[in-house]
TrEMBL record:
A single MF term (Gene Ontology): nucleotide binding
Residue ranges of every copy of the Gfo/Idh/MocA-like oxidoreductase N-terminal domain listed in the record: 18-111
Taxonomic lineage of the native organism: Bacteria, Pseudomonadati, Pseudomonadota, Alphaproteobacteria, Hyphomicrobiales
Domain annotation GFO/IDH/MocA-like oxidoreductase: ranges: 124-244
Naturally occurring in which organism (per UniProt): Devosia elaeis
Residue ranges the record marks as coiled coil: none
Record protein name field: Oxidoreductase
A Pfam family reported for this protein in Swiss-Prot or TrEMBL: GFO_IDH_MocA_C3
Amino acid sequence: MSRGWLNALAEHPLLKGRVRIVGLVDLDPATAQARAAEFGLLDAAIGADLDEMLARTKPDLLFDVVVPGARADVVATGLRHGCHVLSEKPMAASIEQGRAMIAQAAAAGRVHAIVQNRRFIAGVRRIRRLLEEGALGRLTALHCDFFVGAHFGGFREDMDHVLLLDMAIHTLDAARFMSGRAPRAVYCLETNPAGSWYRHGAAANAIFEFEDDIVFNYRGSWAAEGANTSWESAWRLVGTRGTLLWDGADTFQARIVAGDTGFFRDLEDIEVPAPADADQTHGHASVIADFLAAIESGRPPETASNDNIKSLAMVFAAIESARTGRRVSIAV
């Protein structure tokens, strides 16, 4: 994951020259040394002890690119040293940990935000603008299919709730962003399909209730071979005037009702508008740029932890519903 962050920092026009890396920390210093060599970070300090590294280099920012189980300690350490912290997703390994991070950031007077890079892509931004403009009428439902046969190896294949916790957070956050509505409750069935190469929870079906009677239906699997969707999923958004289809890549189809007679009403195609701000469509680079701009201006970043916890709450409510077999209310 650190390669993606460092690529964005080194190469993207939004970021090039804005951040100087002063240290790299890994439990295995040889791994950090190899990454430093890969990116020509010849002056960066290398170490295995984050506390010592922050005391020695005194940076303004900490980029937290660790496995979810290590996040709470890393964020607390960074804030204690006066760093603004940008974390990989998911924000925390529990809602309680997430709340603690929010409180720690507030007490330290520092910004803590999350890399929800998949809301910073053109397709998601275009849909948000279309819905804000009211082209589909009042939004009533979002439907999302995510089916990918992903063979990562490593820590993911041994995680509990791997799809919901490590991947669905992207999709659930995108649904919350696109709709502009808060989640209220969920019913979820989580499974680990026959033939899965994951230890636990490679598939899930969840029905979320959002504000204003909007329903979000999520179907996903990380152990589905043969017909991969986009990493951004395949979407159907239904409004009172029409429907938008998005394949998660470059193909959109949006139609609204154009007549008031007939068993099936006449339809007309409508254009899906360009993003309101093209600078917000570059994934990791856009998230990091928004984080830096927030620090410089004093405004909250779009993915500040005190907002992102609402997406995390969707994940843990879905997990609780799967565990109990019951509808679970979502509250932060």
